[in-house]
Amino acid sequence: MVDTIEHDLLIVGSGLAGLRAAIQAAKTSSNIKIAVISKLQVMRSHSVSAEGGTAAVLFPEEGDSIESHVYDTVKGSDFLGDQDVIEKLVNEMPSEIYQLEHWGMPWSRREDGRIGQRNFGGYSYPRATFAQDKVGFYEMQTLYDTCQKFDNIEFYNEWFTTSIIHDGQKFCGITAIKLSSGTFYTIKGKALIIATGGAGRLYSYSTYSLSSTPEGLDMAYRAGMALKDMEFVQFHPTGILPSGILITEGARGEGGYLLNKDGDRFMKKYAPSKLELASRDVVSRAMMTEINEGRGFKHETGVDCLKLDLRHLGNELIIKKLPAIREISLKFSGIDPAKEPIDVRPVSHYMMGGIHTNIDGATEIQGIWAAGEAACNSVHGANRLGANSTAECLVWGKITGDLAAKYVLEAKSPQFPLHLVSAEEKRIYDGIFRGSGSVNPYEVRQDLTDMMNEKAYVFRNENDLIDGLKKLRELKQKTWKHVDDKAKEYNTNFSNVMELDSMFRVAEVILVGAIARKESRGAHARTDYPDRDDKNFLHHTLVYYDTKEPIIKKHPVTITKYKPVERKY
Ligand SMILES: Cc1cc2nc3c(=O)[nH]c(=O)nc-3n(C[C@H](O)[C@H](O)[C@H](O)COP(=O)(O)OP(=O)(O)OC[C@H]3O[C@@H](n4cnc5c(N)ncnc54)[C@H](O)[C@@H]3O)c2cc1C
Fold first, then answer.
1. What is the pTM of this model?
2. Is 245 in contact with 205 (CB distance < 8 Å)?
3. Which of 182, 257, 274, 508 has CB 3.0 to 4.6 Å from 569, enough for a Cys bridge?
């Protein structure tokens, strides 16, 4: 008999989206029991590493406007963003900034005492609201602290969720392993918010936390929900070598620039007006073109790179506004950015795709919502603008928390399909924990993520993508599904192999989506189809799970005001 716990509302994920959802649900009703389930301790969630800012229109009287933020985001998305969803984000954001302020967020300040905002790529106005270069850490601390005010939020830290249970129509519960004891549980609930974040660790060169793996996406996919627009993976222009840790766009927002080996500020050729502050897809492609045409530097590890120069900003500004960048450069690269340029290269940084939701974050199954990076409500389309993601987490954390709490107040407990719990127990214990084989799963994981880095990076083409898919399927056939450490408590070997199991399915979705999209749009740049093709591809990609092959469908884009035009920066 599997141990069972019951709550009304389950929130899987304790990043910005999960915490914001928990607070809103608790505010909507003090009579519902809310559980926040996370495979990590709360403050280790990836969101703490957000650096540069959160986008919002705060000062219309000084020249910013809602319309401008909306249009910048639509243009940034390469016209694949749903425009009604973008309008919602932009309209809701200013009050989220002030809400956080009232909960204790230490926003950086201007000389006149008002909240500080800085420039970010793709924006026509400096609207990235910042707290030094540690915005995610301060936002998380503020939200976590606020959660403590509510008696009806209970945290299940270090619980690894493995599946979503529904009866074909309605949500019923999840299964999870309590990592400290190794016990397998059913957690019943009437509603679920999936807030499990992105999966950038599908790539070996990545800015993401090591924990950013795709179990949340995979659980939804296996449970019959579509994954949407997964072929759009954002490569941030400035990952520091050799680790890939992020050098925030805020560094370019403060005036830093990129140089090639001829000492040329090459962005003037690719984006004459915005230069280094063009959108990320544009800057990353420019960098890879410079490297591919022989104008890059060779890093001591043998990897090609370019230089990010901050020297002209001066030590004082760097210490005041970019202290984390200085620390990262010194500790992980041995470089003082006030004295030497930093070695950088485009790095996997964000997934525009995720679990298919509507404008309110509702998925295709009743009682299940998704919020934050795990969700794809299509706010970012083919390319996200920096600072719009923490914003998205706040806005849809609030919306889904409220809607799920209201739903719970009305919903009846469904008949629980116990056979699905037994099937899941069998899948992970017989199929993985007690599996056998001689192939090292850690090596397979490295091979899989190296393949993604090689075949589905900034520039893609049919041959590479098909090769990548073939390699993925060969790796999947190997006998890596076994756990050699038989400990019950904190069995990280077990967690790693479960993560790898999910990585295979979700990497396959990225590759099949990228093969099917025979055009270049936003972050998806095909050298064999270099142009955007609105006639055939102005649609979202939906991918559904099937035991044989993923099933691909199309979904319309919502265009309210702005007809697609050529994008120039
Ligand atoms: C280095 C870096 C800097 C960034 N800076 C910015 C920025 O300045 N501005 C901006 O707007 N965006 C930024 N982003 C993007 C932004 O940080 C993320 O998109 C956002 O924080 C995601 O938050 P989230 O709540 O969706 O998920 P996360 O914070 O990733 O949280 C995911 C949660 O899900 C839990 N989870 C996952 N799988 C399981 C499982 N199997 N069982 C149980 N729990 C699970 C995890 O424990 C975690 O609590 C940055 C991204 C990176 C990589």
1. 0.97
2. no
3. 274
**Which ligand 1 atom is nearest residue 245's CA?**
1
Do both 151 and 200 map to the same domain?
yes
Same domain, 163 and 63: yes
Structure tokens belonging to residue 103: 């909960």
pLDDT at site 161: 98
Ligand 1 within 6 A of 238 CB?
A: no
The number of the ligand 1 atom at minimal distance from the alpha carbon of 206 is 53
The pLDDT score that the predictor gives to residue 182 is 97
305 Cβ closer than 6 Å to some ligand 1 atom:
no
Q: Is residue 254 part of a domain?
A: yes
**Residue among 18, 81, 66, 22 nearest 45 (CA):** 18
Residues 184 and 58 in one domain: yes
State whether 447 and 300 are in the same domain. Answer: no
Asked whether residue 50 falls in the same domain as residue 100, the answer is: yes
CA atoms in the 13 A half-sphere facing the CB of 134: 15
The rounded Å distance from CA 77 to ligand 1 centre is: 20
Q: Show the domain range for 440.
A: 418-525
The answer on 279 and 147 residing in a single domain is no
> What CATH number is associated with residue 519?
1.20.58.100
C-alpha distances (whole Å) from 443 to each of 75, 244, 448 are 40, 20, 9
Please report whether residue 47 resides in a domain: yes
Residue 375: what pLDDT? 98
Residues 11 and 121 in one domain: yes
Task: Output the pLDDT for position 92.
Answer: 98
Same domain, 192 and 251: no
End position of a domain, from candidates 369, 389, 410: 410
**How far is Cα 386 from Cα 54, in angstroms, rounded to an integer?**
8
Look up residue 150 and give its DSSP letter.
-
Active site residue 555: no
Each residue's pLDDT tens digit, 29-52: 999 999 999 999 999 999 999 999
Instruction: Measure the CA–CA gap between 80 and 559, rounded to whole angstroms.
Output: 9
Residue 424 pLDDT greater than 90, yes or no: yes
- What band does 420 get if pLDDT is binned at 50, 70 and 90? very high
Is 252 annotated as catalytic? yes
Please tell me which residue in 252, 285, 384, 526 is annotated as part of the active site.
252
Residue 541 placed within a domain = no
Among 35, 143, 142, 133, which Cα is nearest to 397's? 143
The reported pLDDT for the residue numbered 467 is 98
Among all chains, which residue has been given the structure tokens 């559980």? 35
